[in-house]
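Human: I hope this is not a bother. Would you mind checking the protein record under this note? Thank you for your patience.
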Amino acid sequence: MAGPTSRLLTLLSLLQTPRTWSGSELAARLEVTHRTVRRDVDRLREMGYPVDADLGAHGGYRLVAGTSMPPLLLEDDEAIAVALGLRTIAVHGLPELEDAGVRALTKLSQSLPARLRHRVRALGAAAVPWARSSGNTVDADVLTVLSAAIANRERVRLDYEDRGGSLSARHVEPQRLVTVHNRWYLVAFDLDRDDWRQFRADRISAPRGTGARARELMPAEEVLAHLERAELAMAPTYRADVTLRLSLEVAQVRLRDHLGDGELTSEADATRWRSASDTVEWLAIRLLAMDCRFVVHGPQELRDHLGWIHERTRVDGEARSSAEIHGASPKQLSGPVRRSPNRPQ
């Protein structure tokens, strides 16, 4: 006969099967008396598990939904299935559940025996999602290690590949994992560089805890403010080359308030504008605010962004493109229209 604690866990596992168990069935499974079954059921109720009991010849015990989420006991294959599902949520989709998925996966991974962790990794590597996210795929194990380090306030050593492909070793104090535009980022204090950094999680490899204590976690609003500042600082800038269907005199008046710095030259009944460096988002806003026809000669990123605006704002298939509305035909905006690289997919 099993001990009281082991017997209680076995009883809980049986009751979590969606069916009604008679007292005789439970007593036989647990190798105890009916009285012991009733006593163990009472102990589960005291622990917050809502166990209903029906009297009569066809009565029995069953676990029902309560007002709070009690701990669950999972068989090996059930734990593997849940872990694989959480890995999929964390890495490939459901943005509204990504954070919760990583937290749950971290808790589950810390409880899984090594033999089950190996099976989860093997199955996760073999599975190919039908719909891929827009960003590069991040290793779920990287997310769980970083999440655990954040929860435990532990310093981490990791390898990081920058946008040029160079690999460097980093020693960091992880603060938060954040999803931005379908990508995971780690916000951390870089101890070697003595400054705050944000790392794309899909470029992180071999993270490992050091056991050393990290500093206090910063409030979530400070993390978001840091990311916003970093995003503005890192946003790529371009010089627009645009023909405006306006005379130079009219263009000078209109552009004074909209286009800022740049070079204006007269071209017959039109004006050529070569802008100062700015983001494609701001260049597009300035152009569309002019309420005139125009032709974009470059860069391609500006054409792409105008195409993205058109896709988001068109009402139906008969609507003209934003290029036509504001002066350029699709042919004049030559080149394949891709989604703006600076906008969420």
